[in-house]
Amino acid sequence: MDGSRKTYVAVVVIQAIYTGMFLLSKVAFDVGMNPFVFVFYRQAAAAVFLAPIAKFLEWKTAPPISFLICFKIFMLSLCGVTLSLNIYGVALKYTSATLAAATTNSLPVTTFILAVLLRMETANIRTGVGIAKVMGIVFCAGGALTIAFFKGPTVKLLLHHHLFSYHGQVQNTAASSHWIKGVFLLLLANAFWATWLVMQNRVLKSYPSKLLCTTLQCFMSTIQSFVFAIALARDPSEWRLGWNVRLLSVAYCGIVVTGVTFYLQAWVVEKKGPVYMAMTTPLALIFTIASSAVLFGEILSLGSILGGILLVGGLYSVLWGKSKEQKMAASNTGDIEKAENESKEQSTMEKQSSTPNARIY
Q: Which residues contact 228 (CB under 8 A, 6 or more apart)?
């Protein structure tokens, strides 16, 4: 399997894992688990899981960590992990699951804007490639808004009996006084996550040990999350974990999501860039819609289907634009190298032809 196919498989696996995270964490929050305690436990589980692996695989070959690198990783953990996850968990309390999943797809828009501002991406609308990338962003935003605010008629699946009897809390979000606050918090969480995607690429260039970098982020975010949790969750009963969905969600999100997916995501960001990783987030929403319908018996609406189509269209529009852009860059590089080689050959021939004439005179 070549490198390009590996990245495609990696992003599909990442979004499938995120689908499990969304379902399990939503169930855990609905049964009363505190989101700040949840983030602390999942980051602690991830740090404990990754520490021995990182020590065995990369400790001897990893470059030394300077104070500046340590500070960058600390800020990366604070923005992309601690603040993003804690704000997102609180926002789920204020809004519906549909809006939470839909607004996650504002991540490509935010990431693309940040990457353009930092000159990591270009958006030249005078070219077909630039138009495709911009239209992809528009399609993704339109798809997210369609799923969030347009329901339409419902579509019944052929499967009449769902696997689990859990039903999430039904909220009249349109009339809720916390609606605007919840939307703001969701967008703020995505902004922090987009910042992590963009800055992760720069940190990895100065410190290329991906596994050790991920482990350090988990360790630092554990300390940061503990400070948040101990300050905002004073009831000891909120810290208890039993043999229930709380423990399952913490173990899954800590080991599989934070421990495995963050490493895969860092690898994809390094290979393809932050916008490529961000543009695959619509897949998680599509997987979540399908999984919720099968597992919990949620009924799909026409808005969900139309929004999913727009999201997939936007995804492949941007991927097509980036693919063409990379091919053009590779072609230009090849032309430059070819021109340089021809120039060297011509210079050598001129020297050889001028040498006999010099001897005659």
A: 36, 39, 40, 82, 86
Q: Which residues contact 280 (CB under 8 A, 6 or more apart)?
A: 11, 12, 14, 15, 315
Task: End-to-end CA distance of the chain: give it in Å, rounded.
Answer: 63
Question: Hey, what are 214's tokens?
Answer: 């991920």
Of 43, 89, 270, 80, nearest in space to 194 by CA: 80
HSE-CB at 203 with a 13 A cutoff on CA atoms is: 31
Q: What share of the chain is helix, strand, coil (3-state, %, to 5)?
A: 80, 0, 20
Q: Is 242 helix (H, G, I), strand (E, B) or coil?
A: coil
Instruction: For residue 158, give the DSSP letter.
Output: S
Taking only the tens place, the pLDDT of each residue in 272-323 is 776 677 777 778 877 877 777 777 766 667 777 787 788 778 777 877 777 7
- What would the pLDDT profile of 237-246 be if each residue is shown by its tens digit? 888 888 888 8
Strand partners, 301: 154
Question: Which tokens go with 174?
Answer: 């349109």
In this prediction the pTM is: 0.74
As a whole number of angstroms, the distance between CA 155 and CA 108 comes to 28
pLDDT of residue 227: 93
Task: Convert the pLDDT of each residue in 72-103 to its tens digit.
Answer: 899 999 988 899 989 988 887 777 666 677 67
Which amino acid is residue 311, in one-letter code?
Answer: L
Contact between 282 and 301 under an 8 Å Cβ cutoff? The reply is no
Nearest-angstrom CA–CA distance, 291 and 8: 21
